[in-house]
Amino acid sequence: MRLIYGTTVAEEDKLEREGKEWKSSGFSRGVSIYRGVIRHHQHGRWQARIGRVAGNKDLDLGTFSTQEEAAEVYDIAAIKFQHLNAVTNFDMSRYDVNSILESSTLPIFSCEVVQRC
């Protein structure tokens, strides 16, 4: 392991993961700085997926033009399935958590849920 300014690469990786922007490690294809976001292998759009929710299987949440859109959709799904224990890409204050938890479906990208419309 090489040293960079007194810390190992593994220590720097751990420090980066402790921040809110999590480097995706759950899915190996594609490179994104966001959790649950990968580059789609056929058409290059950003795909959001969440793992181990539907009978221990991955759930495809769709493809999007930007990493940020895909990351928001991942966050909404994480809140829906993992409630307040969810690890999200963005601060939870960005979302209407009660609306997400009360919905019987995944309220993806509605202005009531993502408070930036």
From TrEMBL:
Keyword NADP applies: no
Keywords annotated in UniProt: DNA-binding, Nucleus, Transcription, Transcription regulation
UniProt superkingdom: Eukaryota
Cellular localization per UniProt: Nucleus
Chief location of this protein within or outside the cell: nucleus
A GO CC term assigned to this protein in UniProt: nucleus
AP2/ERF domain sequence ranges: 33-91
Molecular-function GO terms, alphabetical: DNA binding; DNA-binding transcription factor activity
SUPFAM superfamilies assigned: DNA-binding domain
PROSITE patterns: AP2_ERF (PS51032)
Name of the protein in its database record: AP2/ERF domain-containing protein
UniProt source species: Vitis vinifera (Grape)
